[in-house]
Write the structure tokens for this entry.
Amino acid sequence: MAMNVGAGKDDEPMMEINTTPLIDVMLVLLVMLIITIPIQTHAVKLDMPRNAQAQTPQLPQVVDLELDFDGTVFWNGVPVPNTAMLDDYLKAAALQEPQPEIHLKPNRLVKYDYVARVLAAAQRLGVTRIGFVGNEQYMD
């Protein structure tokens, strides 16, 4: 490094930039870059199994379970006369392998009590694949 000794008068301001802090900042950034780059390049190599023949995924059976405004339950469009029959349907669906997807579509005007009873019966009987459909009717 060079140092300027007595090149100018003492009255004149020094017109050179002190680059020492800039070099210090650059060295700190360089060290941080060196430390963080190996972390980003780590990869986990996985040996994925190779399938000799392509298998088409089997689509699950879908059951449409509708609740009318007065609490009437429809299983695939057929009215269910009582809760014992609904329990039989749900029990049969729970025992199937794989379980069918049950699409529950409650009417907009049905009381929550009816929906809660159907969901509780499904849970009690072991139905795990149940979901709500037709939610667009509640948008407005």
Remarks:
- The domain at 62-135 is CATH 3.30.420 (Nucleotidyltransferase; domain 5).
- The longest strand covers residues 62-67.
- The beta strands are 62-67, 73-75, 78-80, 101-106, 130-132.
